[in-house]
Amino acid sequence: MGRGNRFGATLSEVMIGLALFAMFSLAMLGLLIQSARLDAQEEVNTQMTALAQRIIEEQIDKARHYEGYQSLADVALTPTSDAKFLYTQTVTDVAGGLKKVSISLFFSKRDNPGVVDLSRPRQGEAVSMAVIVGEPNP
Domain boundaries in the chain? Predict the structure, then answer.
């Protein structure tokens, strides 16, 4: 048999193919790992957004049914119903008798739930939400 009639691949061709396959596989693995991290962070963000929305709705409903929106007041760092989080509430008067209610939700430290965990992203601040409310016209 002559040299031109050989079938198959040489060792160097196989090694180059394996190296290319390994680089492609590592790139795909990196994408999967990053995707899993982002998915986990997005799940936490969704949980925190729902909690912030629930807190703001509870504050507004309580004020609406019992005292009126004028009773809405600032809240210092306070634990939420979920021990992993703390929140603050800021109430600002807006023109025309409207009030802006802002909630900031923070992660609490695992060993000290009354303290904000500054090691988390954004120096501890995780989610902020605001709504503007006003007394209905009589």
Answer: 9-134
